[in-house]
Write a structure and sequence with these properties.
Peptidase_M20_dimer (chains A, B), Alpha-Beta Plaits, 5-stranded antiparallel beta sheet, alpha/beta, Aminopeptidase, 10-stranded mixed beta sheet, homodimer, globular, Zn-dependent hydrolase (chains A, B), 2 domains, zinc (chains A, B)
């Protein structure tokens, strides 16, 4: 066949799969998964590798087997549900996300992408579409990083298996290592075949809620994610002198919190100046010592989360931060230092992947009488960020009401969830048929 | 006798007692008490009503008995060591301080005033001075407030006994109530006569380290404390909206920490404007929620400690604080509130008490070839603050090296400690002879 023929056949199969997606079934599957750790406020508490997470994994394994999938697990606990392709030896098309939550999360963050992946397989079955390549739904381990840091362990270890050794030593608040929790989880899936960590993948599409306000504000149900903004994390420490709030005159104080606030104000000014270039800056975590009502702070530490789609803007911000800290360090009586905690450059998904996503989204939206998709970048990390290091990757977003996520109030309209799964079905099927 | 004759006799006795104070004995007694909870870094860890504190109390009881004192204890655990006067029915002259410490404190904060009180009794014995009134050395319970809040429980319950009921319900970090700890302490001094809480007192003098830098800077060994500055404590709460640091554009954020910092800057500006009037302001304790590197703060709470010798300045500051909080509350998307936690007006010691202290200090300093005393106000709370509610009260300060206290590095020169005890002997004796 000519490549035009292949494209035509692939698009035809993609349309069939898209049309076979069922809204009610999708919603029921979302609710069924949300029951594991479901809360009376509508949220879900299901941190990674807890008993509830293991029960939820078992639930998905049984669902996947019922759909005819082969189930495998790798050394990082990532689960793969494979629907066979006509050519079994070809690398699969991957989709999926994660099912772990923040201490209090919603029903959709991560879970939606996994459930929609299984819905795609159901739709392929129902439409009797035979794909050339296998289609694989993945459940990545510990995306949230809430129990064990860092986040996205499963996907980053998949992309670079040597990372797992370090991850295994990460401890939760109770002192349990990720390695110990992982071994216990693997022991509970002894009936599941294991697979090597990091097998070849043809392409990957991740469907996720936006967790931001952009799609809602634009009143469109589907977003074509062109990339994930770059991020740099820092810790800033300021050492002053703890002293008695009552006896120490203002002019002799070395108040570390006051110095930290002056520094923070400079950083906000830098961030405001770069706002038009898309810089986002958050000073989220603070430690004040001795943190006593009648003692001047002697020691303050805070974190800086800076993100941007433009690496040059991020680099400029980092330079300003380091300059401000150096100036503070040189001023009377203070010591200040900045430490880089994490940095990841802008992730750019391949244009041909975005074009494919856009076709799938546009078809689903048009058939539903909805607005055409828009393109946007992701402000949040996703497993796709790491998968993009090893294969052509893309993401689809659906709106988050009021931009709220990591919260029991997280919500997306069922019609939007339905369109997202349809767009995913199209993209995965076309990729698997080429 | 004429009042002139009485004054002459009293001054003569005061001079005899002052001259009988012994430096070596004083220092040995300070070291002996510091052994209870002494640390290898030179500090002392002896929180109130702990086993170490109870051992230290027993040590002092035995010392006082060896000096011929009658020992009594009240319902708040305050210990009184009484040297009889010629007229047993007259209210005593009170001196002393506390022996509890911060989690890590020095050898002198509080302990010095108690040990110097016992040294005064020893000096009176050695000089065979018979005073008209009894002289009583007090060990106040829980001045620091480190284990059980609030501080100065013993002296404030002495001044107003009905406060004890509420204090008994205060809990330490382990959940033990002050009442339970107190009952256990009282059970261990079953051999000590009890006395009512809040007996009549003729006058009170408390000797203490300055815990600030004023005397050291002035290079004088003794300070006449004219009062204790007023204090107002507040808690400020700011409610914004927690949101994802990556996905939330800067222009739609309601970052509670950023709002708190803007408010804090206004407060610093107010404090700076009133610095010349002696205002001291500290924003010491912070709680940031959820306090996560990649989440915008949704909820911030911080404390304000404002102190001044001028009530009008404190009132003006409070008005500015309330105004700033109201303005923030009215601004887009934030809710803010201020709560008063504690307020105590300026304590002014009677001028005639200050004059007496000054005579005692001046004589001791002149005889040692040291600089004459200066007058100052106390920036810190002391038990004398509450005792001043029930009788004429005064304080004497000795220098604190580098102003450091609540720290193992707390230090005062032995010659200064010696002069402080001499000044105390003079003041107590003169008061007891009139």
């Amino acid at each position: 066949m000519s490549s035009t023929d292949v494209s035509h056949i692939a698009a035809d199969a993609a349309a069939h799969a898209q049309d076979a997606v069922a809204s009610g079934r999708l919603n029921e599957a979302i609710e069924a998964l949300a029951a594991f750790g479901g809360r009376s406020d509508g949220g879900v508490s299901r941190e990674t590798l807890t008993p509830l997470d293991l029960q939820a994994r078992r639930h998905l394994i049984e669902r996947a087997r019922a759909l005819g999938c082969e189930v495998r697990v790798d050394a990082c606990g990532n689960l793969f549900f494979r629907r066979a392709g006509q050519q079994a030896d070809l690398p699969p098309v991957l989709t999926g996300s994660h099912i772990d939550t923040q201490p209090v999360g919603g029903k959709l963050d991560g879970a939606y992408g996994v459930i929609a992946g299984l819905e795609v397989i159901q739709a392929l079955n129902d439409a009797s579409v035979a794909t050339r390549r296998p289609v694989e739904v993945v459940v990545w381990t510990n995306e949230e990083g809430a129990r064990f840091g860092p986040g996205a362990m499963g996907s980053s270890a998949f992309a670079k298996p040597e990372r797992l050794t370090g991850y295994r030593t990460s401890r939760d608040a109770a002192g349990v290592t990720f390695g110990a929790a992982l071994d216990a989880a693997l022991a509970q899936v002894g009936d599941v075949n294991s697979c090597p960590l990091g097998h070849p993948v043809h392409a990957c599409v991740e469907l996720h809620i936006e967790q931001g306000p952009v799609l809602e504000a634009a009143n469109v149900p589907l977003g074509v994610v062109t990339g994930i903004q770059g991020v740099r994390w820092f810790s800033v420490k300021i050492l002053g002198a703890a002293a008695h709030a009552g006896t120490t005159p203002m002019e002799v104080r070395r108040d570390a919190m006051r110095a930290a606030m002056a520094l923070a104000n400079r950083l906000y000014a830098c961030a405001d100046a770069a706002r038009a270039q898309g810089l986002r800056m958050t000073l989220g975590r603070w430690r004040v010592d001795p943190n006593s009502i009648n003692t001047i702070a002697g020691d303050v530490e805070f974190t800086v989360d800076a993100r941007c789609v433009d690496e040059a803007v991020l680099a400029g911000f980092e330079a300003s931060l380091r300059d401000a800290v150096t100036n503070l360090d040189a001023s009377d009586g203070y010591a200040a230092q900045v430490q880089s905690l994490f940095a990841r450059g802008m992730t750019r998904f391949p244009p041909e992947m975005a074009a494919l996503i856009e076709r799938g989204c546009a078809r689903a939206a048009a058939n539903a009488g909805e607005q055409a998709p828009i393109r946007l970048t992701s402000g949040a990390f996703h497993d796709a960020m790491y998968v993009a290091d090893v294969c052509p990757t893309a993401m689809i977003f659906v709106p988050s009401r009021a931009g709220i996520s990591h919260n029991a109030a997280e919500y997306t309209e069922p019609r939007q969830l339905y369109l997202g799964a349809k767009a995913l079905a199209y993209a995965v099927t076309e990729l698997a048929c080429r």
